[in-house]
Amino acid sequence: MSDPLVAVKDLEVYFPVRSSGVVSRHVNDVKAVDGVTFEINRGETLGLVGESGCGKTTTGLALLRLLQPTGGTVRFDGLDVIDLDRADLRALRKRMAMIFQDPYASLDPRMSIGKIVAEPLEIHSLVRSRADKHRRVGDLLEMVGLSPDYRNRYPHEFSGGQRQRVGIARALATEPDFIVCDEPIAALDVSIQAAVMNLLEDLQRDLGLTYLFIAHDLSAVQHFSDRIAVMYLGRIVEVADRVPLYEEPKHPYTDALLSAVPVPDPVVERSRTRTILEGDVPSPLDPPSGCNFHPRCPRAFEPCSVADPALAAAPEHDVACHLYD
Amino acid sequence: MSEPILQVRDLGVRFGTKRGAAEVVNGISYDLHRGETLAIVGESGSGKSVGVLALMGLLAQPPASVSGSVRYHGNELVGLASKKWRGIRGMGIAMIFQDPMTSLNPVRTVGYQLAEPMELHLDLKGGAARQRAVELLDLVGIPSPEARIDDYPHQLSGGMRQRVMIAMGLACDPDVLIADEATTALDVTTQAQITELVAGLQERLGMAVIWITHDLGVVASIADRVHVMYGGRFMEQASVDELYAAPQHPYTEGLLGSLPMPGSDRPDRLVTIPGLPPDPVTMPPGCPFAPRCGYADNTQCTAAMPEMALMAERHEAACYHPIGAGHE
């Protein structure tokens, strides 16, 4: 097996909390990402799932160094992303891109979509002439299923699904190897979601892209990913290939998450037993002791409140839970 | 069968816009019986929310104009004077809104907001209203309700706020509860908590629930009957089992095919529905789905909207080329 394209080790992103008042002191940290380790192989899609506030978007931003991590390492194709200086980082950013969640907020309403898609080309000096740029923008729009004639239109003239296509075209402009897709379909209608997912799949096949697919919707992640990492309160609790994760989830949280996903089949719905989690995700300001899932865990026992389980690297199926010690 | 609590007949909502009249809801009819859960499924812009806002008398007229009839225990609600609404809205029919982040008042405590409808409708004052508010918070599963009652909405999580919304809906013992995308803004785990909660309350209190959603997964887990809405019209209506087992309308078939199924056997590609939902101002003549439909012909489908026709027992679809009739 070749080297992974992206290797994340012990990634930490802490946001400091300061006391109010004249002299602000550093009183605490919000541990948004707290020791996350995973690898993404070339051409693979790693799904990252978890509830809102679990740190999945922060992880994605830190991978691209759109946020400065407070600890850990991120290696992209052998390069240390965290320690790069500005010039090198810029060169590297050409090879990574991000598709954002909200296609309404992530496109500048005052730029035509042609300009939006051309911007990364200009920033990275990837086009030599106006004619070159015109051709390239046309190609990109075509690649995502939009007519090149739309280039002079503005975002408000497009539907959500079309806007998301513009966002995808922008991400593809620099011919990246790696794209972080942060909830790319969450804001779209059901019938449009399928089209965007199919597009992302086609692009991956044709261009050999590697994806980190962030979502809270486990059925979409399952459809889309090769491997899936489950995140809870800043940590990864389980990583496995999509089939074993679905058929034999090991971590009680994964099990609960799977059971919460409604199945679009009333017969199945009636026959299955659901594990309904009690309560809410605890505050990352004051995470519980030991395993931070233990207050909600239906299978918690003595060691859970004391020791924090490590992500045990079993072959093909890693899990961080005392049940498997 | 007993008299339905709610009888909606030919309900229509039209908005006057600068570009012309927008027919947002177009002749929808349904009955709601005691204890029943009815789901109205549709994508954004299909008119599903406007349809229930019209039913609740919450649309300002103008710009909206509401036609048709809504009978609640036999009393006509369309055109009812606003004074008379007081005894019905909140009392008989209550609504849970989509976004629990924006539908609570940020500068009032949860207790104040819960007590307000009880003071208005039930004439409960001070301590009595507070007592009932605590009971309601307990009923919807909020831990330590005596302490939580003095919290402001920002002190609660999304799931807790939605529980407060439900408690507000239940404050005056309505017999109809309308949940408009009540779980859409929530995480799947919280969504499961809320759907379970509403189902449990429904069983205990015998309410009828209208569940408005775009999520066919949620519908499968909670509904008795389903109405599929598109372009302001009902396209198909059936029991939940019938609908998923044998969808008749091409739109329903497309919606079901476009869902990624949780499971290990994954289809290579999802079915997509080409094109975009129609613009209510320039609604195509005939069936609104015809321009996106793989089975549409150039004669009937584009000429006139098909009538709702019986496909199987208690299963109706409005289509000239239903799936069951066999294609190809």
Keywords:
heterodimer, A: 325 residues, alpha/beta, Rossmann fold, 7-stranded mixed beta sheet, 4-stranded antiparallel beta sheet, 10 helices, 11 strands, 22% strand, globular, B: 328 residues, 8-stranded mixed beta sheet, 11 helices, 30% helix, 23% strand
Give the helix/strand layout.
The complex is a heterodimer of chains A (325) and B (328).
Chain A: E1 6-18, E2 26-40, E3 45-49, H1 56-63, E4 71-76, E5 79-80, H2 86-93, E6 96-99, H3 113-123, H4 130-143, H5 160-172, E7 178-182, H6 190-207, E8 210-215, H7 218-224, E9 227-232, E10 235-241, H8 242-247, H9 252-260, H10 266-271, E11 317-319
Parallel strand pairs in A: 3-8, 3-9, 6-7, 7-8
Antiparallel strand pairs in A: 1-2, 1-4, 4-5, 9-10, 10-11
Helix pairs in contact in A: 3-4, 3-5, 5-6
Chain B: E1 6-17, E2 20-32, E3 37-41, H1 48-55, E4 64-72, E5 75-76, H2 82-85, E6 93-96, H3 110-121, H4 126-139, H5 145-148, H6 158-170, E7 176-180, H7 188-205, E8 208-213, H8 216-222, E9 225-230, E10 233-239, H9 240-245, H10 250-257, H11 300-303, E11 309-312, E12 315-317
Parallel strand pairs in B: 3-8, 3-9, 6-7, 7-8
Antiparallel strand pairs in B: 1-2, 1-4, 4-5, 9-10, 10-12, 11-12
Fold and architecture overview:
The complex is a heterodimer of chains A (325) and B (328). In chain A, 31% of the residues lie in helices and 22% in strands. By secondary structure, chain A is an alpha/beta fold. Chain A has a single domain, classed as Rossmann fold (3-Layer(aba) Sandwich), CATH 3.40.50.300. Chain A is globular. The two termini of chain A are 28 Å apart. The model of chain A has no long low-confidence stretch (mean pLDDT 88). With 328 residues, chain B is of the alpha/beta class. Chain B is built from eleven helices and twelve strands. In chain B, the strands form two sheets. Chain B has an eight-stranded mixed sheet with strand order 6-7-8-3-9-10-12-11, with helices on both faces. A four-stranded antiparallel sheet of chain B has the order 2-1-4-5. In chain B, α3 crosses α4 (126-139) and α4 (126-139) packs across α6. Chain B starts with 5 loop residues before the first strand and ends in an 11-residue tail after the last strand. In chain B, 48% of the residues are buried. At the A-B interface, α6, α7, α8, α9 and α10 of A face α6, α7, α8, α9 and α10 of B.
